[in-house]
Write a structure and sequence with these properties.
The chain is built from twelve helices and 13 strands. By secondary structure, it is α+β, with helices and mostly antiparallel strands. Helix 1 packs antiparallel against helix 7.
Length: about 375
């Protein structure tokens, strides 16, 4: 069975204000969760990255994600803090501190003032593909579906303490980076390598690991890496994204979009702005359609792969849930409208299973979150 890996990024935020909190040097390195996976430093000192081991099933993935999120929650509770599983923080101090490392020093020098406001959390999914040329073909298949994936997973509606009007404000912030959003369509592996090498030669990126395309080939592993999605509120949201991504990558008879970069980028902007209420280009037909129609077309195309991998029932249920309860962005907006910062706090606590350890009964927190996620905005 095709293996995959998940990387989730989170922010440590103050419990009262939901403003990111900087951590002292070495704090994140000392976190050693039980049950597999690793917790690593990220670009800012307020960020964590949780990385799973290579996995074969969503059941194993769920177990590792629970352990990783629980370890973060246990770390946050005595600090009077919360782990925020959101693409951007609700608010910020405007004084983000960059983690000390040679790599991040190079990135910060490259980005200048952009680095100070780059408080973004993503969900990255790696899907193992043994053959290098097939990885390029899979990348070409994935690129046309990027707007649909973003529409389904937008989860960053706030910035500087206010609604932005966007489902994925993280995507808009990332747009400022060089070599970002949609990758070109590549002829083969040599073409891919040459185009990346050219970006490095131009000094657009300092090294391959700084490539910010929404989908790329991993430079460390034999994987296709999807980077288009915001960090997700709940574990099931993350598992849904991973399952759907894996199915697209392994569906070698799926359509390969020949759409130019600017057309898919326009679809990504619309998805970032409107989420599932937006319009996209259907890679299977080349026609403009609403995001829900494209999502169901995607499910039809990858349905055989989902069945083979054992993920069909789960993915279908999650799509129904998004239709009923909304994306992460919609759930965040509804919670904030209903109960302000307290509503957002409960969503984040429920997402890390930390309700009880952070001073609010887990059952009550979960019940309140469910009430805020009811239909009928």
């Amino acid at each position: 069975m095709t293996r995959f890996g998940i990387e989730e990024e989170f922010l440590l935020v103050d419990r009262s204000t939901l403003v990111p909190l900087a951590m002292a040097d070495g704090t994140r390195e000392r976190l050693a969760p039980e049950g597999g996976g690793r917790i690593l430093p990220e670009f800012l000192t307020s960020q964590f990255e949780c990385v799973t081991d290579p996995l074969s099933s969503m059941t194993d993935a769920a177990a590792q994600l629970r352990h990783l999120r629980a370890a973060l929650a246990a770390h946050a509770a005595p600090l009077d803090a919360v782990i925020a599983a959101s693409g951007t923080p609700f608010n910020t101090t405007g004084h983000a501190t960059i983690s000390a490392s040679p790599h991040y020093d190079r990135v910060s020098a490259q980005l200048g003032a952009i680095a100070r406001g780059h408080e973004v959390n993503g969900l990255h999914v790696h899907v193992e593909v043994a053959d290098a040329e097939e990885r390029v073909r899979a990348l070409n298949r994935v690129r046309g579906w990027l707007p649909v994936l973003l529409a389904l997973t937008g989860n960053s509606p706030f910035a500087e303490g206010a609604a932005t009007g966007f489902a994925s404000w993280r995507s808009i912030l990332i747009r400022r980076l060089p070599a970002t959003w949609t990758p070109p369509r590549f002829h083969d592996l040599d073409d891919y390598e040459e185009q990346v090498d050219r970006l490095i030669a131009l000094s657009a990126i300092p090294e391959r690991s700084s490539l910010s395309w929404a989908a790329r080939l991993s430079d460390r592993f034999p994987t296709v890496e999807l980077r288009v999605c915001d960090a997700q509120l709940e574990i099931d949201d993350t598992l849904f994204t991973a399952a759907l991504t894996r199915a697209i990558v392994v569906s070698d008879d799926g359509p390969t979009s020949a759409a130019p970069v600017e057309q898919i980028d326009a679809g990504l902007w619309v998805a970032a702005r409107h989420g599932m209420a937006g319009t996209v280009v259907d890679p299977a037909t080349g026609q403009t359609t609403d995001a829900w129609a494209a999502a169901h077309r995607l499910l039809d195309i990858v349905g055989p792969a989902l069945e083979q991998l054992g993920d069909a029932e789960f993915v279908t249920a999650q799509v129904d849930r998004i239709r009923r309860d909304g994306t992460g962005a919609e759930r965040q907006l509804r919670a904030h409208t209903h109960d302000g910062l307290s509503g957002l706090r409960r969503l984040h606590l429920a997402g890390s299973d930390s309700g009880g350890s952070a001073g609010e009964p887990a059952a009550a927190s979960a019940a309140e979150s469910a009430a805020e996620s009811s239909p009928g905005e």
